[in-house]
Amino acid sequence: MTEEILWVNDNLLFLMDILGTFAFACSGALAGIAKRFDPVGVVVLAFVTAIGGGTLRDILIGNFPVLWLKNDIAIVVISIAAIIAMLAGKWLQKIPYILFIFDAIGLGLFTIYGIELGLKSGLSIEICIALGTITACFGGVIRDVLLNTVPLIFYHEIYVMACVAGAVLYFILGALGVHLFWTRIFSMLLIILIRIVVVKYHLSLPKFYLKR
Amino acid sequence: MTEEILWVNDNLLFLMDILGTFAFACSGALAGIAKRFDPVGVVVLAFVTAIGGGTLRDILIGNFPVLWLKNDIAIVVISIAAIIAMLAGKWLQKIPYILFIFDAIGLGLFTIYGIELGLKSGLSIEICIALGTITACFGGVIRDVLLNTVPLIFYHEIYVMACVAGAVLYFILGALGVHLFWTRIFSMLLIILIRIVVVKYHLSLPKFYLKR
Amino acid sequence: MTEEILWVNDNLLFLMDILGTFAFACSGALAGIAKRFDPVGVVVLAFVTAIGGGTLRDILIGNFPVLWLKNDIAIVVISIAAIIAMLAGKWLQKIPYILFIFDAIGLGLFTIYGIELGLKSGLSIEICIALGTITACFGGVIRDVLLNTVPLIFYHEIYVMACVAGAVLYFILGALGVHLFWTRIFSMLLIILIRIVVVKYHLSLPKFYLKR
Description:
mainly alpha, 77% helix
């Protein structure tokens, strides 16, 4: 039974990992196209956006060679995403909803990945929460730095908070003895739900210090 | 006697480490507030500014997981600094002198830290001087990159030279057989002194090549 | 005979490594001078441009401490390059051809270096091609990020493609059983040749997706 769940689990994680990588790669590629980069620049930006967060995580915890060096499938998925973005960019931009969902899924998945790699390295809970958030958010930060703009996460859409909230739920459910499979699913769903609500209602954190 | 000195020494280092981290975190937080980041963005920038230099140093020498992953107190100090900056930013900006002193202390301390970690890794003297300078200066570089501005150290206030001068003094005193405690103190004091003199008299290095 | 070839080979690699490091350091220093950095800023930018790509490569594959920490000669060459650039910048800018050739040589050499370090780490061929390209191109990316501009490689001159083409040739020649010495030489020559042709005829990749 447990085996079956884990079997579902691993296939699910694998599928979502690919979806997340694909989504982040698309967002990077579309950003590069918008800046009129040449095709290679578009691929490079897609690549950096998709693997940047996980690479920084692997570097911080000392997981070498970093995962994507051992995983050709990431390069394949990212290249496909970049090519699709170049051929169908106009079309993709007309359905941002799909990309947004992919991005939210990637955000959820990469947060959980970061947490679990942190736990494997024997790091404390709050550090694991930070690691999960870095894994999910820093690909976008690097993308924005290379685009020569101030990273979006500093301004918008409770991006970081969604990851932190999901990461906290992960540890609460774990402490409650919930099965790892459901702990992962519920944490990811919370992150995705927060992102949907925030974007739908244009929520942002109060800048109370600006009133002073 | 030596024991007592080392006891003073360690407590002093610990205190100055916290002060330095606090100072760098404040400078990052205030920069984020000035750019009207949301509160999470302010915390992230404070964090990156305070731990960026040490993280790069740990990565370059292969010290994994990087120190702040093993040291929850850094996260606590940085969060407190960010919250204080958000609540009392206006007030803090009225007394830049205190922040400047903290920053100079942090600069001195992080330079010495970098040197000693380099020595522990068996690196050459000039490499250790570079490491100490990177530790002290690169948190600010990363902060400026994320703020989408050209790093201050490229233009102003003999920031890098102060660290190099202190690092060189560290090795001169060491070669003269001065006790480690006083070597650290004098090197840090030189860095702090240079920073104070430079800022007080608006000194900068001559750009001789611009005359040509 | 083979020994003799390898002897030539190693001396040649060493010479080209120094030339390449010198060239990349000059390009960084000249960029800093153009931005009116202070002398220390110029040296820092020269340093980052020359060692940035190799440092990122070492970090990704987990080669610590990164090579330049163990190699004082890099610091010496880079410092000399920066000083020459400051004293003779005007003169150097009048003969960009020399700098361009140095840069192309550096590009070729650093690509091969990255590939061979990847192979030593037991990475797959396509990953080694990526590593070689990163080694050659990312010093310039970091330089541009610090200069607060969008990295040139995203827009211009088939910079990345030249490295990829040379890297692919390296593996084709290897598969054909060509001697390592000639494999290295021909791969580097291809990269240099592509760069010369591209710059001479102002070639760039078609942005087919902009027509859509």
